[in-house]
Amino acid sequence: MTVTTSLNRRILLASAAALVLGSSPSLAQDLTKVKIGWLRSSLSLVLHPIAMEEGFYKKNGIELVTKIVRSGDGSIGPQSVMQGELDVYIGVISDVAKINSEASENNMQPPLAVVALGSPGATNLVLKNTLPFNGLDDIKGLRIGVSSLGSAHLVTFRQYLAEKGTTVEKLGLRLVAVGGGEMPPALLSGQIDGFLHSQPTPAIAVATGQAKLVLAPSQMGVAGTSPNVGIIVSRKWASANKAILSKIVTALRETSEAYPSIPKDRIVKIAVTHLGGEPEQIAGSYDSVDPRLVPGPKGADIYWSVEMAAMKERGEVGKNFQQKDLFDFGLLQ
Which pLDDT score, from 0 to 100, does residue 333 have? Predict the structure, then answer.
């Protein structure tokens, strides 16, 4: 073999290797960095860490820079998206509705958009064991913990009460702002009589032997089926980065599709790592949680008839606020 032939062969091999390496989405140099905020609140939001741990983001060419938002501080997420500190926020939707409604009322384009929805039915009502519960009359005047006064769980519960012909005010409920992780200790210490939250917080409280679950999502009618989690973006950022946004939502959809086939023990391990709690309590919550994405338009319709109807009734958003002011599934390629 001549020197020239040998050299040409080495060049061809090097070029082929470069093509192979360049086509692999798993290599760091080919990944697109995305700043994602994630509400670290409950099992309702476990889809994001599953997507991380099972490699679905990386498979779709995304390298995450994650900011954790604590339960009770959920409004920080949408604000951070507006300010450009985050590209995407995975959290509850009610704060987005308030921001966008205010813009709409001032004849401005709503700055944020929800491009995907997930986790239908996540609200639970937990009470002290010593308190009777045979119906809603039994909770009159109680101190009920909520992660914030704009909590999605409170919105769901208000709508459930409306379905039953009553309200928080008619029942004389005293709402107390308590972070999700602090709810079981607050219940045990007597600061609150009960709380509204998603799993595994109820299971943690019940495991103490001093609390009981009195209303699960399946017992809250239509309100109990409403999506709780949104994939939230700035319309400006999304319009300029449709391909990146599509990859993020695709990763979460693929995670949703894979979720039923991922071993329960694996889900429990991921949840304990990212959310905390005891494995036994997480495992006990597993069957009552569905963190997957739902079809966008259908989920939006349910959300609108449940949470948004209640928010409009209380004046938290304008009467003329429309679905297109909150949801924009067209931003996905």
Answer: 65
Residue 110: helix, strand or coil by DSSP?
Answer: coil
- Cα(82)–Cα(112) distance, rounded to whole angstroms? 7
Nearest to 198 by CA among 40, 37, 36, 38: 40
pTM of the model: 0.77
- Consecutive 10-residue averages of pLDDT for the chain (333 residues): 46 44 48 95 92 97 93 83 96 91 94 95 93 97 91 86 93 94 94 93 91 92 88 97 96 98 96 90 86 92 88 88 95 81
Q: What's the confidence (pLDDT) of residue 309?
A: 84
DSSP 44-97: GGTHHHHHHHTTHHHHTTEEEEEEEEETT-TTHHHHHHHTTS-SEEEE-SHHHH
Sign of the CA dihedral running 245, 248, 254, 255: negative
- Is 111 in contact with 327 (CB distance < 8 Å)? no
- Cα distance between the two ends of the chain: 52
Strands (E), the chain: 32-40, 62-70, 88-91, 112-120, 124-128, 143-146, 174-177, 194-197, 211-215, 227-234, 293-294
